Structures are given as structure tokens and as C-alpha cells.
Amino acid sequence: MHYVLLGGAIAAELIATSLMKATDGFTRLWPTLAVLAGYVISFVLLAQAVKGIEVGVAYAIWSAVGTAAIVAIGAVFLGEPLTTVKVAGIALIIAGVVMLNLNGSGAH
């Protein structure tokens, strides 16, 4: 169940971050409220998830999946370039999360 909450936290963060440009620097009311609500929901769900997942592991997964997904969303929907350096960076982030999870499960 804790990983379901973490998944919800990630989804809320992705929605909020994806809407960030629509706020026009937080000058547009409704997109701004949607972004703020998304981040509040994300942190509430993350706080619930860490009741059953080590905080370092949960945060690493939350931030890594969020980062990788936002890069993909930027490339697919916002016309942002997907460079070799970005792909390599995402691979390193994923490798780091895998290492944290292996350590968190007792493997050394």
C-alpha cells in the first residue's frame, strides 16, 4: 500500500510540474492553484508513503521517477530536446535509485 501512495505522490507531482509553464510565472490564477494543489497532494501522499518505506528510498524514487518522467513529458509534449547528455543523466539517476533500493533491502 505504501508504494501505491508513493505512486500517487509521483503522479500528483508530475501533473503539478507539467502545469508549471501554464501559470505564466504564477500570474494566472487557475493554473497556479492547480500547481499548488498538485504539490500539496504530492507531499501529503509522500508523507504517508514514508510511514512504510525508508524516507531516503522513497524520496529517491519520488524524485528520480519524477525527473525522468518530466524529461520525457518535456520532449514529447513541450518540444524540448532529448539529448544524449539528458539520457545519460537519467540513466545515472535510475542507477542511483536501484543502488539505494538494493541497500535498503539488506543486500550489500
UniProtKB/TrEMBL annotation:
Highest taxon, organism lineage: Bacteria
Main location: membrane
Location(s), subcellular: Cell membrane
Keyword Iron applies: no
Similarity comment: family membership: Belongs to the drug/metabolite transporter (DMT) superfamily. Small multidrug resistance (SMR) (TC 2.A.7.1) family.
Cross-referenced InterPro entries: EmrE-like, Small_drug/metabolite_transptr, Small_multidrug_res
Membrane topology: Multi-pass membrane protein
Protein name: Multidrug efflux SMR transporter
Pfam families: Multi_Drug_Res
Keywords: Cell membrane, Membrane, Transmembrane, Transmembrane helix, Transport
Transmembrane segments: 30-50, 57-78, 84-102
